[in-house]
UniProtKB/TrEMBL annotation:
Similarity section: Belongs to the AHA1 family.
One Pfam family hit: AHSA1
Gene3D superfamilies the record matches: 3.30.530.20
Lineage: Bacteria, Pseudomonadati, Bacteroidota, Chitinophagia, Chitinophagales
Chain ranges of the Activator of Hsp90 ATPase homologue 1/2-like C-terminal domain: 10-125
Signal sequence region: none
Organism: Chitinophaga niabensis
Protein name: Uncharacterized conserved protein YndB, AHSA1/START domain
Amino acid sequence: MQIEKSILINATPAKVWEVFTNPEVTRKMGGEYISDWKAGSSFGWKGADGKMYTQGVILQIIPNQLLQHHLFRPEDGHSILSTITYEFLDQQGSTLLLAKEDPVESYEDASAGWDAALQAVKELAEGL
């Protein structure tokens, strides 16, 4: 079952993009993304404790517009758990951030997690 979420952020797409790609900003969410931000490159979330919590590969990337990546199953590190897509849509100085995850095995848990994550992105981007 696919999850689709969106949130309107009172910040430009460039500022919202920075929440993902600038470790100084991202650390305010309790960790940082580890990647060189190129298609085909590894992508993962490292917590403040130094542990890698997620791993994947970037499929598509257009700065300030699109980020799509796989997430791998933590058990084996290479079986695809889901594909996540973020779209950053310019709304006259604000950003409509669209997030999709497909497929999702535990819909309820993942859906609630998305709500919290998007709210954190909104708060950080609007504070920049």
